[in-house]
Amino acid sequence: MELMAITAKGIAIKIRNFEIPDIRRVMEIEEQSFLDGDAGLYLELYEEWPEGFMVAEKEDKVIGFVVMVLTPEGEGRVFALAVDSRYRGGGVGRTLLKAAFAVLRKMKIWYVLLEVRVSNVVAQRLYRSMGFAEIGFVPFYYKDGEGAIEMRKVL
Ligand SMILES: CC(C)(COP(=O)(O)OP(=O)(O)OC[C@H]1O[C@@H](n2cnc3c(N)ncnc32)[C@H](O)[C@@H]1OP(=O)(O)O)[C@@H](O)C(=O)NCCC(=O)NCCS
Hints:
Helices cover 29% and strands 35% of the residues. By secondary structure, it is an alpha+beta fold. The chain has a single domain, classed as Aminopeptidase.
């Protein structure tokens, strides 16, 4: 998968599949974003399903990424989504999610799930605006003990 896009806020980006040398930038963005992943886990998920891991590039620099996994029930799950803090609010996150959902639809997968920190109101707002609905709450979901809101969307 590779596509050029201009976000709703006018940032020109390329969305393409993750490649192994991208892992350094992915980890830099992940560290700014307080996600729970580690490089080994991301590379494992990439090996399991390479098309589920995409990056957004601006002028040949990775500025965001999305990682999806497939659930045993055959649904999609957004495992991680993050944008370089310098580029947040520019529509990159929304564009990455749209590209990820296009991959799921092509595979005839019609449901996508995700978990989001209770305190992460910015991401919750993005997900709601994209049609996600709250379906549950998982206490102590994250390593630091914070709970997660579970959300689901019909594609
Ligand atoms: C969540 C995240 C990926 C969104 O990426 P982004 O590129 O900044 O998001 P977008 O610019 O596409 O914004 C999409 C929507 O998010 C919401 N949003 C974005 N920035 C916001 C802000 N500063 N305050 C409130 N809402 C905001 C808005 O609803 C926005 O829609 P709008 O622009 O139409 O109003 C990014 O903020 C991020 O990397 N956060 C840290 C990691 C994280 O929380 N990941 C999600 C874990 S579940």
